[in-house]
Structures are given as structure tokens and as C-alpha cells.
Amino acid sequence: MAKQEEPQGQGQTEGSQIQFQSPPGQPPPTPEQVEVMKRQLFAEAQKAGMSVPEFLNKMKEQQMAQQQAQQQAQAQVQQQAQQQPIQPGPPKPEALAVANFLKGQDLKLRTCILNGQRKDMFKVKRALRALQSPAYAKARSKNPLLPEITDRTSLESTFKLLPMSLLALRVSKSDPHEGHNHAPGAHKIKRVKGLWTVKIEQQQECKEELHFVWLYEGAQVKQKLYAFGALALVFTIVMFPLWPMKLRLGVWYLSMGMLGLIGLFFVMAIFRLILFAITMFAVPPGLWLYPNLFEDVGFFDSFRPLWGWQEEKKKGKKKSKQAGSANAGATMAAFTGQPAPATATTSSAAPQIQTSNTQQRHQAPRVEEVFDED
């Protein structure tokens, strides 16, 4: 019905007041229009087999139910807009096209650790810039699978294709002491210096300051070539009895040379240990030959520098420092035959002489990780 029942013109029907009001911005109904609306209302009430007050109450309940349904629908739409469902399955062709385009762009990737594996991490704002660049428009003219971007909403919808297809997921830097529960197995997670250890967030949002991790590896052409090469190498080794005699003899000499290099490596490791043991007492704190030999660095960096002094590790407690220093002084005195240097400490009561090395607290500057926000 093109009428609303609210207070303004009045009429009497079955002992109850019926009031009509025009919609906002329109003039109030005339008495003739009020009479017409009354007759329509009475006819509909009689058709429904109800009295006019009962019919009005039923209409109010229906209007309230419709309003509640509309509010719930709007809330669901907003919730779906904020949190997109991630369903496992093959990625969409549009998502693969967007991922391949972004893989070829300079997103200033940063290596991070996710579940013990190294992954490439990027910032959302750099991906959004790439999707708004002329390169994307040029790529879209060649690849129709790339979605069209006209405004901010379509831009975010295009980027959200990545997490919805499990090609890239939002992550945040994890705290190894989060909750201070230290659950079993938490100590097994080894942190790598200079790299973020991240975790996947449940809420996959699209904000410029957030970070995402690539789970999509691309075409993997190199991996396939490496696998084929490894298979060919294994097959070649298995066919060793069929090799020519000269080739087998050359391989034997090569293996002997490799064994010689391995033996030389062990000799060098033993020699550097003996050298450190000697210099630890002669010129403390001790001299290492190839100090980075067993460190977690590259092959060539393992042999740089040629030598270096032993780095003293800081103890957690001051008492343990003093005890270790006293033991070191006593050990040096026993080997050199000279008394340990004496230090005098004065107080208000009486002078006291302590035969121990002075321990000075040195607070080294800390270098915190700073991530480029540009």
C-alpha cells in the first residue's frame, strides 16, 4: 500500500484512532485522500479476516521483521567484505595471472623464515603500486585474464585474489617468547640473525602497511632442470662399469684428490685447535686460524679472515663473571709462574686488597633491525 500509518490527520474506526502521515518532503494528505486510505485499509483488514487494530499490528510486525532482515544482510555483506573466505583448491586463472605479473615486478623482496623455510616477503603497498603502474595496463592488453582496475575497490579486490587462492598470505613477525609459556618444541625453532621469523595471520586484510609472503613458486623451470640433471647424474654413476677404462682411471684419480682435500681439511682443523690452545695461555684470549671456518656463512666467507682473536662471551650474572675471571687469573698464574695482578678497593671502613682482575661492565651498543618503509 502506498500509505504510512503515523500521527497526523485523525479518524475513528471501531473505537480506535487511525492516523496517517505523508512521507518526508511531501505535503500532508488531504481529507479526501485520508478517506480513500481508510477505505483501502478497512477493505484489506476485512479481506484478511482481522479487525483494523489487529491488521495494523500485523503490518508493524512485518515492517520490523523486514528491517531486521535488511540489517542482518548488510552486516553479512560488510563481514564478507572485511574477511574473504579462503577455500583450498586449484587457484583461479585470474589469480595466477596477477601472481605471475607481480613476480616479475620489483617489490623489494625480503627473505624471512616461515615454518623453518626461507620465503620471500613483500609489502602490500608495493604490490598495489605495481598494479596501478602503466606496466600493468600494458600487460593487461596482452593478457585478458588480468582483472581491470578502475578504483580503489577493484584494486583491493584484484590483490585479494592472491590470498583467496593461497598464492600469498599475510604474515607478521612472531615473538618466540609470546605468552611466556615456552611450549614443548618452541626451543627447537632456530632464529636466523638478520631475518624475520614470521607466522601466518588468520585475518587476511589488504592494508598498505601489512606484509605478505609468497607461497607461489612460479613456473619452476629451474627446479625441473635441476631435477632432470640430478636424475641424469645418478643414471651416469649407476652405469660406471660400462665407462671406458681411461675415464674410470681419471675418476679414480679425482676421488683420491678429493679424499686428500678432506684429509687436509681435518689436519687444518686439528692444527687450528692446537694453535688456539697454545695462544690462549701465551697471548690470551687466544688466536684462531680461519675463525669463521665452522660458522653459518658461505663457502668463501668461511676462509675470511685468515686469523682472528677469540671473542669472549658475556656471562649472564655478575657473580659468574667474577668467578670466571678469578679462575682465569689463577690459571694464568699457575702457567706463567707470576702472581695475579692485585687491585685495591677502598671503603669507609678499611682498605681491602683483592687478588683478582677488575671487571668493568661494558654495555655494547645494540643494533636493531630496521625495515625500509619506502
Automatic annotation (TrEMBL):
- What is the recorded membrane topology of this protein? Multi-pass membrane protein
Q: Which GO terms describe its cellular component?
A: endoplasmic reticulum membrane
Cell location: Endoplasmic reticulum membrane
**A single Pfam family, by name?**
Sec62
Quick one: where's region Disordered? 1-39, 52-94, 338-374
One GO biological process this protein is involved in is: post-translational protein targeting to membrane, translocation
**Source superkingdom:** Eukaryota
Q: Which family does it belong to?
A: Belongs to the SEC62 family.
**Descriptive protein name:** Translocation protein SEC62
Q: What is the organism of origin for this protein? A: Diplocarpon rosae
Per the UniProt record, the lineage of the source organism begins with: Eukaryota, Fungi, Dikarya, Ascomycota, Pezizomycotina
